[in-house]
Amino acid sequence: MSFDLIVRNATLPHKGSGWDIALTGGKIAAVERAITAEAARVIDAHGLLVSPPFVDIHFHMDATLSLGLPRLNQSGTLLEGIALWGELKPLLTPEAVAERALRYCDLAVSQGLLAIRSHVDICDDRLTAVDALLDVKRKIAPYIDLQLVAFPQDGYLRAPSAAKNLERALDKGVDIVGGIPHFERTMEEGSRSVELLCDIAVERGLMVDMHCDETDDPMSRHIETLTAETQRLGLQGRVTGSHLTSMHSMDNYYVSKLLPLMAEAGVHAVANPLINIVLQGRHDTYPKRRGLTRIAEMRAQGINVALGHDCVMDPWYSLGSGDMLDVAHMAVHVGQLTSREAMRYCFEAVTTNAAKVMGLESYGVDVGCNGDLVVLQAADPIEAIRLKARRLYVVRRGKVIAESAPQTTRLDLPGRPGEVDPAGYAPSGSSS
Ligand code: FE2
């Protein structure tokens, strides 16, 4: 028996060390202790971590890499970001949106990021970004699974043509119903928008993913309505509340009632630590609130929590590199998720948990799953986060689609010649 690819001596996040993985016909054919068969290509993982690909569950591909167009965000706030995006929107062309998105996708592949859920703003009557990203989705399908969310950035009820445009975008093939209840004119209209959008999801048999309560206002409680609608309409497992930053500032007693309701309704939660640590708390003096929802508490209630990158070099965030380990690293810090198992959970939040939110089928390093994996220059998930480990090989459907040389640095120190391995704690190597 000959396989297309065998990865030998792998450490798997959920199974530990010493595994060989055989891939053929785009699928994982075997995961065993010692595979004796031949393969067209063999990679020795040398005991390093082999993970399923990274999944970014919350992104804005229509805005990515637009930093500085037409100007920079001076206040650093969410609201100036929205206003700035509003200035850029009329200037967008399908070609420019697609060119930036494709450039970002190249970066994503190099980072082992092979599944992305992107919101796409539908509040442009031309639906420029919708058409561009639908085209991008087709183009990148061989190497990235892209889901698109119809996102009414300027408010579903607040923007005059948002309702009509949202339906048009879904008709064109956008996958998921979005929303932004905290940006509607009143709390009541926010709630109403959640109800109307959930009804659309039921009618069309789609999933829902709303920007929900991305504010420091503890009274922004649209997640409560989203949860109740999920329950009422039987949408369990198909609804996601993204950002949920108001939960950071909510009264503890109220949260103790809210979280079990979210768990009961099977609502997924998405935190975006990189972006919200810079956007939230901007109106505070000191102490400044941290812009992260309650990850540990939701997890303890059995709510599925995933992490998103949200933005890379756009009106809201001027940094980012498509690295989901950077996202997990920030979550560990801002959420104080520093126990060994909490750090492992952060790795799951950018892989398996996010895949669950997307509803990805055949995801994972198991027999019968798609032949998609990443060999990381790290011994385990915690080390991967600590080092933001290099992706040595990125494999899609059994074929290597990106490769990097291991990271090492040659030192020339008096009496201490050698190389620094990023995984090591001190210079190592021969000093003879
Ligand atoms: Fe977002």
Structure description:
The protein is an alpha/beta fold and 432 residues long. The chain folds into two domains: 2-52 and 364-414, Urease, subunit C, domain 1; 54-358, TIM Barrel (Alpha-Beta Barrel), CATH 3.20.20.140. It is 34% helix and 23% strand. It has 14 helices and 18 strands. The protein has helices spanning 78-88, 94-110, 128-140, 162-172, 187-204, 222-233, 246-249, 252-265, 273-279, 295-300, 324-334, 340-349, 352-358, 381-387; strands at residues 2-12, 16-24, 27-32, 38-44, 50-51, 54-59, 113-121, 145-151, 176-177, 207-212, 239-243, 268-271, 305-307, 373-376, 391-396, 399-403, 409-411, 418-420. Strands 6-7-8-9-10-11-12-13 form an eight-stranded parallel β-sheet, with helices on both faces. Strands 3-2-1-4 form a four-stranded mixed β-sheet, with no helix packed on it. A four-stranded antiparallel β-sheet has the order 5-14-15-16, with no helix packed on it. β17 (409-411) and β18 form a beta hairpin. α6 runs parallel beside α8 (252-265), α11 (324-334) crosses α12 and α12 (340-349) crosses α14. The radius of gyration is 22 Å and the shape is globular. The chain starts with a strand and ends in a 12-residue tail after the last strand. The structure holds fe (ii) ion. Fe (ii) ion is lined by residues 58, 60, 119, 211, 310.
Q: Main beta sheet, described?
A: 8 strands, parallel
Strand line-up across the major sheet: 6-7-8-9-10-11-12-13
Unreliable sequence segments? 426-432
Average pLDDT number = 95
The set of bound ligands, ions and cofactors reads: fe (ii) ion
Strand content: 15-25%
Classify the fold: give the CATH topology of the largest domain. Answer: TIM Barrel
**Fraction in helix:** 25-40%
Shape: globular
Could you say what the CATH architecture of the largest domain is? Alpha-Beta Barrel
Number of structural domains:
2
Q: Tell me the number of helical segments per DSSP (H or I, 4 or more residues long).
A: 14
- The CATH homologous superfamily name of the largest domain equals Metal-dependent hydrolases
Structural class: alpha/beta
Classified by CATH, the class of the largest domain is: Alpha Beta
| Overall strand count | 18
Distance between the termini: 46 Å
User: Radius of gyration in whole Å, from Cα?
Assistant: 22 Å
